[in-house]
Description:
Elements: E1 9-12, E2 17-21, H1 32-38, E3 43-47, H2 64-77, E4 83-88, H3 90-101, E5 106-112, H4 123-146, H5 154-171, H6 177-181, H7 186-190, E6 192-198, H8 205-214, E7 218-223, H9 229-232, H10 234-247
Parallel strand pairs: 2-3, 2-4, 4-5, 5-6, 6-7
Antiparallel strand pairs: 1-3
Helix pairs in contact: 2-3, 4-5
Amino acid sequence: MSSDIQLYFRESGEGFPLILLHGNGENGDYFKHQIEYFKNRYRVIALDTRGHGQSPRGEKPFTIRQFAEDLYDFMDGQRIEKAHILGFSDGGNIALVFALKYPERVDHLILNGANLDASGVKPSTQIPIVLGYHTASAIARAGEVIFAKKSVPKFFKEAQREAEMLGLMVHDPDIRPEELSENENPDFQKIKKLVIAGDNDMIKDEHTRLIYASLPNAQIRVLHGSHFIAKENYGEFDQTVEEFLELH
């Protein structure tokens, strides 16, 4: 398989690859503390997901599953046979989808603030996302109708981009817990997995624990902080990840 784009990435350090996947609407700079912390022990690679940061949008679907395919193509292009993968939020969802399909390419899997579907997000966060998605989608559709064969103004293009971004949090990743708990692939079974979240995360605590309980060979850590613990509580976060990678 081959991608229609080349992903932008930041790389620092040498050794076994540690790939970092950012969240919705962000880029690899989110992990600046992790890059600095782990670069002396690993080849740290922070990607910009398709249509995020400096990576182009391309023509392929704007979905979590496509992003997982992009990761596969990236690893092939970089001749990375296997890696530790740390994903935050939508990046965690990408990492999980990738591990389900290509478990032989994953050594340690770290899911920070991931979710299986939209029901895992607290209503205070999810309701505005859904409303924003429907509003942006309506504006984008109106632009397509009004300017069918003409140049679409920037306002409508921005609405389309916003609809795509928010759509990731409305429709994806759509994984059933049974896909984790009943997965008998030995390569998936043996991946060492860490589920990590903040005690004031936008992901429901019971949903985070459902992911943990459904995953074979998994551990869970809940740290003090919000959804953005890797940025706000990076000292404890990095030490927790380091312990997992080095001791398990």
